[in-house]
Amino acid sequence: MDKQTFWQLIETARADTAPDPVAEGDADREAEGDPDRDAVARRAAELLAARPEAEMLAAQQVLWDLLAESYRSPLWAAAYMINGGCSDDGFDYFRGWLLTQGREVFDAALADPDSLAEHPAVREAAAEGLYLEVEEALSIAWTAYENATGRELPSDSFTIRYPPLDPAWDFDFDDEVELAARLPRLSALFGDA
Q1: Do residues 145 and 155 make contact, with C-beta atoms less than 8 angstroms apart?
Q2: 48-98 pLDDT tens trace
Q3: CA–CA separation, 76 vs 8, rounded Å?
Q4: Quick one: which of 11, 8, 17, 19 has its CA closest to 43?
Q5: Which letter does DSSP use for residue 51 in this model?
Q6: Do 189 and 122 contact (CB within 8 A), yes or no?
Q7: Which residue of 3, 5, 79, 171 is 20 to 30 Å from 105, comparing CA positions?
Q8: Phi, psi torsion values for 18, nearest 5 degrees
Q9: What is the pLDDT of residues 8-57, one digit of tens each?
Q10: Using CA atoms, how far apart are residues 45 and 146, in angstroms rounded to an integer?
Q11: Which helix (H) or strand (E) element contains residue 90?
Q12: Are 102 and 14 in contact (CB under 8 A)?
């Protein structure tokens, strides 16, 4: 499994879990393209479990590569602002949420974390005080492998290498003035939260 195939898996899971606006009576939710976040991770694991064992093993490495790719200070600052704080684990879970949003949102957030201010779920989080986290996304391959084989995913089937964080972003994320200068659109949404 490569990144392209992984992203196709996520898109299929998103499509499969998108709420029916007629049944739900919530046309706006589907228009936003924001299915139940945990459901996307669960469905991705189900879809992956139907694939060959080698693909499940490879999917874990792809997932960790994407997590390493998204291990960036500007994104962490955005997550801190969106979720009203963000520990190490919280940043992992936020990136899990980001993975469930699909490749387009993921890539846009890496290129410009402030672009998340335009995402409907982020706007809803600002209005409703919600957290954007999907811990379950971090275990898509683990869950798939265990469900398909009855065994735990071998620990030697993947490696984790996080890059160093950007020292230019080494400041207190509680500094609202600095965050406003660096992430102005998110600050406009969450600055008074």
Answers
A1: no
A2: 999 999 999 999 999 999 999 999 999 999 999 999 999 999 999 999 999
A3: 26
A4: 17
A5: S
A6: yes
A7: 171
A8: -65, 130
A9: 999 999 999 988 655 544 434 433 444 577 999 999 999 999 999 999 99
A10: 10
A11: helix 88-100
A12: yes
